Amino acid sequence: MRLETALYSSSQGLHTHGNAISVVGDNISNASTTGFKSERVDFSDLMPEGYELAQSSVLGSAGSGSLITDVKTMYEGGTIEYTGRSLDTGIDGNGFFILSDGNTNYYSRAGDFQVRKDGTVINNNGLALQGYLKDSTTLSDISVAGLLSSSGKETTQMALTGNVTSETPITTVLDNPTTFKEINEAASFIAGDINFYDSLGARHSMILAFYKTGVNEYKAIGYTNGSEVGKEEGVPVKVSDAVTLKFKEDGTLSDESKANAKINVNMNYTNGANAGNFTIDVSNFTQYASVSYISLADQDGYSASSVKDYEFSSDGNFYAIMEDDTRVFVANVPLADAIDRQTFKRVGDSLYQYRGDSANIRIESSGTKGLGELKTASLEYSNVDIADEFVSMILYQRAYQANSQVFNVTGTLIENTIAMIRN
Q1: 398, 414, 385, 410: which is closest to 76 by C-alpha?
Q2: Burial class of residue 155 (count of CB atoms within 10 Å of its CB; 0-12, 13-18, 19+)
Q3: How remote is the C-alpha of 17 from its chain's centroid?
């Protein structure tokens, strides 16, 4: 054990605590950075021979100071603030957005996106947001290029969800109703204003009438206004055959009904468009004692119009909102996560790269398997706690000053020792 050891130890202490103060400064500097995650310094002690060897079995070795073993990222969530901007979205929980430059994937918590002139959804650095386009299981750039100025797309399929109440009497299906009033009086439930589109991008509408025909059994039939198909205005025209929905005692569809719960709609338009043929999937309907309702889950048609806005849903779906207020599904935005999040390494510009074993990274839909939900028109702000950073800064400052004092005292003692030898 020598006097010089204190010199080396204090020098190392100055180095490590100086770096620690740099980390605090970086955290405070990014207190307003979107999606920023604060970092923490991990210290460790140094021994001249390492932890397995000591210089003496009687007198243990003096330590050689300290070092920074790691700078860990703290992934606790930041505050989610509403911004009102439709292309902003924050992650409430675990996960990262996936971005790509065409060759390399990057990961980010910053959800402030924009649409490039070519229709690609990008972040502020021009990296393309990755997602699953309709009917695709492969990640690719999300783009609305086909919708920016659209000639429209004909509806070929539609999906509805809803409930038909069990608390209603059995009724009789009308064979040839002559007015919509007759349908309203006879049907157990009317789902009105179901919109769809022809090959010219024109919008049309129809209703679905649900008749309770027995215990745990309904029939669904589609009607449209006669003017839609060249018939008399105000006269209902049947545009689908009856589909039978049989429910189990728990209110869900029987397996047989679920497999065949598709309503085939046939429309003979008079505006020059191709004859319309599309299916309405009602396999997710239930029959509970609550009120009857219907909701549009998805459809692939849209009008001849332009995009006026965008929307992220909590489950990661990204929609384009057309000028006629139609919501067109564009893609599902998944999130990425890993068993050890420290394998995501910060590379700047609010980006991370994954440096671990690729087998340990997982990509799932938001809101599932422990991943967070998307908060539309919102952003996640930095999770830096200024008060905590000030506490750390004071502690590191005191330690730095103490190490500098040890360095000075040790230097003075060495000078005195040399002077004694000379004399």
Answers
A1: 385
A2: buried
A3: 38
**Tokens at residue 49, please?**
């021979």
DSSP letter, residue 305:
S
Are residues 379 and 109 in contact, defined by beta-carbon separation less than 8 angstroms?
A: no
Strands 378-380 and 97-100: unpaired
Per-residue pLDDT, 299: 84
Q: Is 334 helix (H, G, I), strand (E, B) or coil?
A: strand
Segment 171-188 shows an average pLDDT of 93
The SS3 assignment for 241 reads coil
Pairing state between β 361-365 and 334-338: antiparallel
The answer, yes or no, to whether residue 5 has pLDDT greater than 90, is no
Three-state secondary structure call for residue 161:
strand
Q: Are 215 and 247 in contact (CB under 8 A)?
A: no
On average, the pLDDT of the chain sits at: 90
Residues 6+ apart with CB under 8 A from 372: 77, 91, 92, 93, 94, 95, 335, 366
Residue-wise pLDDT for 26-40, tens only, equals 999 999 999 999 999
The C-alpha angle with vertex 199 and arms to 274 and 239, in degrees rounded to 5, equals 60
The span from the CA of 315 to the CA of 131, in Å, is 13
- Count of H helices and E strands in the chain? 4, 28
| Nearest 10 degrees: Cα torsion 305, 308, 312, 318 | 30
Contact between 320 and 331 (Cβ < 8 Å): no
d(CA 162, CA 43): 58
pLDDT of residue 139 exceeding 90, the answer is yes
C-alpha distances in angstroms, 65 versus 6, 43, 203, 408? Answer: 8, 10, 76, 16
Is the separation of the CB atoms in 225 and 233 below 8 Å? yes
Residues 6+ apart with CB under 8 A from 408: none
203-259 per-position pLDDT tens digit: 899 999 999 999 999 999 999 999 999 899 999 999 999 999 999 999 999 999 999
Residue 378 CA, distance from chain mean position: 12
Q: Which residues, at least 6 apart from 124, have a Cβ–Cβ distance to it below 8 Å?
A: 110, 112, 114, 349, 350
The pTM of this model reads 0.70
